Amino acid sequence: MVSDAMNGCLCLMVVPGFVRLPSARQLTVQMMQNPQILAALQERLDGLVGSPSGYMESLPKVVKRRVNALKNLQVKCAHIEAKFYEEVHELERKYAALYQPLFDKRSDIVKAAYEPTEEECEWKADEEEELTEEMKEKAKVEEEKKDEEKEDPKGVPEFWLTVFKNVDLLSDMVQEHDEPILKQLQDVKVKFSDPGQPMSFSLEFNFEPNEFFTNTLLTKTYKMRSEPDENDPFSFDGPEIMGCTGCTIDWTKGKNITLKTIKKKQKHKGRGTVRTVTKTVPNDSFFNFFTPPDVPESGDMDEDTEAVLAADFEIGHFIRERIVPRAVLYFTGEAIEDDDDDVSTHHSLCVMEGEEEGEEENDPDYDPKVGRRAYC
Ligand SMILES: *[C@@H]1O[C@H](CO)[C@@H](O)[C@H](O)[C@H]1NC(C)=O
Ligand SMILES: *[C@@H]1O[C@H](CO)[C@@H](O)[C@H](O)[C@H]1NC(C)=O
């Protein structure tokens, strides 16, 4: 636990996103894919007399007793680690307040509430981006042509829609019929829970007044838990997302794209006549994101629900950790290439042998199980 936390600190210092070690389970999966490790493991297993638990069995009673004391210490460590993450949450809140004016300015530029000055628009091109004179000339002509076509665009048109379409995780959710609505999305914000409140974060989607629904704000809240499970304290690995709630979308009449009507032929049992009935059924849409399934109190849920929630938690986490902080880089596409680099950088700093580069696609921290860790 202690070294785990220290690794967390190391990562905190060297990388901007807060990243911790992959869970033991992730590690196991990676190791099991490595033939050399597998072979070595088999050798060990072949030579092993008795299992680890067998070893514990073989210990004298007095020693076993003391090992239990060690495990109790370990439980206490898990509780201290939980406190550590509560402070991380506080630190995130504090820094969120420092980022917010910049995010607000981003939003103002995107929605044309503010026109950046000449100075603010200066940007030194990367070496890679430096073009030959000839190419520059060509680009200029094309740009002028484009400007002529699109008359006086306001702000950065389709900023968030483009971001969403550039990120696989989100573009999978965005249907064609969602696009006209998402064009009106002006800002996405992250709000953290207040001190003393149960740990959570909300995603806020601000829309321009539009013809589709009367809300201008849609929200999605993720409840988190940062305390060891009493029944399984050693699995504690940082805060987990425990559940989420959406919001009611007040669709204007006939605009509810999360519904579709289908025609069904129905046969009258007695008379044998056939008639056509129309039925409304759910339709695929990004906006289903705001009506997630409930997490049952009992914790028992069917596989479908679990899969939907696991994907939902991953998306919520990704929007919070990556998209909102660096939206412009997803708009330009720069962040998409960088993500692979990030994986190898983080991992080489934080961990560990037997790790392959660029293995996980987007989020190095993704743990597909429900109740996943929220940091890393
Ligand atoms: C339902 O989804 C289909 C395909 O995604 C789309 O073509 C259609 O317009 C949607 N229906 C409504 C009523 O929005
Ligand atoms: C829109 O459709 C959803 C189902 O996808 C339904 O739950 C909701 O009540 C509908 N809202 C309106 C205003 O029709």
UniProtKB/TrEMBL annotation:
UniProt key word Nucleus: yes
Chain segments carrying region Disordered: 120-153, 352-376
GO biological process, one term: nucleosome assembly
This protein's GO CC annotations: nucleus
Compartments in which it is found: Nucleus
Record keywords, A-Z: Nucleus
Superkingdom of origin organism: Eukaryota
Composition skew (Acidic residues), residue ranges: 120-132, 353-365
Biased composition (Basic and acidic residues): 133-153
Primary location class: nucleus
Family: Belongs to the nucleosome assembly protein (NAP) family.
Protein name as annotated: Nucleosome assembly protein 1-like 1
Organism whose genome encodes this protein: Oncorhynchus tshawytscha
Lineage: Eukaryota, Metazoa, Chordata, Craniata, Vertebrata
